[in-house]
Design brief:
Helix content is about 40%, strand content about 15%. It contains eleven helices and nine strands. The protein has a five-stranded parallel sheet with strand order 7-4-3-8-9. It has a two-stranded antiparallel ribbon with strand order 1-2. The two termini are about 40 Å apart. The model is unreliable at about 15-20 and about 50-70 (pLDDT under 50). Pfam families: PIN_4.
Length: about 300
């Protein structure tokens, strides 16, 4: 079954040269039935495998990863969810409610580092943008409608964090923001040959290596999760976790949010990656995990 990333690659990327090219355009005139006609030809030659005999210029700047500054301030004790496209399309209602509760807590007196940061990679923005015009059915709506809603939520949340004020009527410190969206300027040029799934996994690995923070990929895409786990990046499916939470009966979104908050505590995070174990817990065992209160 194709994923959102596969759809993006097929519809948007296509085949393009992956390195520098030399383009030669020639023009010639020749007679045809007593008239002179001009003809043109264009030749494109990829140069990515050619070596520069002169070597690099002495004063040329060396190009490092462009994403060095993205969330470089993350503390090793921080916890972050990197959101895949499918999560923002199929589970936006829960993500939106969760982010809202966390952000409200950050606007109160004595706000501290959030229990979890939500991170949207830039490649996810690209996928959402491509899907905005899609008429592909998804439940009772279309993929395009879901993509447009996700896009609006991302913008609204970014603006609320940037221009909102805390209880002291001061701007909110970016370190207290809940949602962090990767900008194009922070994407590494070294990752341009990667697929979208690989790019997302690479961002997770980079953040973990750079900051030592606990990074988890949140995705319902089995292939993306497998790639992340192979890179020692823990993953979980939000849909499967919610299904495990609902084992003891239906719950409101607010109740789901409180339990997700509970599972973000350091000693319980491993349950996110083990929905089968989570589903096997009895109501009494759930209570034994620790009480949770509204954020």
């Amino acid at each position: 079954m194709s994923t959102y990333a596969d759809y993006f690659n097929e519809q948007y990327r296509g085949h393009v040269p992956s390195g520098p090219v030399r383009m030669t355009i020639s023009r010639s005139d020749k007679p045809t039935e007593g008239k002179w006609e001009a003809s043109e030809s264009c030749t494109v030659e990829e140069l990515m495998d050619q070596e520069d005999p002169a070597g690099p210029a002495i004063n040329a700047p060396t190009e490092g990863p462009a994403s060095t500054g993205f969330l470089s301030w993350l503390h090793p004790s921080s916890f972050a969810w990197v959101l895949d496209t499918n999560i923002l399309l199929s589970s936006l209602e829960h993500v939106e409610a969760f982010a809202h509760e966390l952000l409200c807590a950050q606007l109160q007196p004595q706000a501290c580092i959030p229990c979890v940061y939500l991170i949207v990679p830039h490649v996810v923005l690209e996928e959402i943008d491509l899907l905005k015009q899609s008429t592909r059915p998804h439940g009772t709506t279309t993929m395009g409608a879901l993509a447009r809603r996700a896009s609006h939520w991302i913008l609204d949340t970014v603006q609320q964090q940037k221009y909102g004020r805390n209880y002291e009527q001061r701007p909110l410190d970016p370190k207290l923001w809940i949602l962090h969206v990767q900008a194009l300027s922070t994407r590494s040029t070294e990752q341009r040959h990667l697929t979208n799934d690989q790019t997302i996994v690479a961002l997770c690995a980079e953040l973990h290596k750079k900051c030592g923070a606990h990074i988890m990929l949140v995705s319902d895409d089995t292939n993306a999760c497998t790639q992340a786990e192979l890179e020692n990046i823990p993953t979980f499916s939000l849909q499967r976790v919610l299904s495990a939470i609902h084992k003891h009966g239906p719950a409101t979104i607010q109740q789901d949010i409180y339990k997700l908050y509970q599972l973000c505590q350091p000693n319980l995070r491993h349950f996110l990656s083990q929905p089968a174990v989570l589903a096997a817990l009895s109501a009494h065992e759930w209570q034994a995990l620790g009480s949770y209160t509204p954020l």
